[in-house]
Amino acid sequence: MSNRGLRSTMLFVAGLMGLFGVASAAAASHGTDPRLLGGLLALYAAWAHFRTAAIATLLLAAGTALFAADLTMRHFSGNGLFPMSAPIGGVTMMAGWLVVALGAFLPRKSD
After folding, report:
1. Rounded CA gap, 44 and 32, in Å?
2. Between 63 and which of 19, 50, 92, 95 could a Cys-Cys bridge form, CB atoms 3.0 to 4.6 Å apart?
3. How far apart are CA 47 and CA 88, in angstroms?
4. What pLDDT does 27 receive?
């Protein structure tokens, strides 16, 4: 997959994350934090110069999807997705933000 294709895919994933984040929040009666979507949009905007953008975006997308899926399953079925799925999703999201932070210490792609 080309860089442009991956970039488009990640923007698509960010849009789905926003959709499922709002749906999960409504279903589980939790508030949403718009900073996550804002952070993903910033990663998209800086993609060409941010060396760790791809891995950070993948971790954030996977963690958010796992966390939201667990909340949705708990709400609608009374059972979680699988044991510890929400905490694993949360830790995966934290890892994504850590990768963003570590990216500040790596040379830019254009350097």
Report:
1. 21
2. 92
3. 26
4. 52
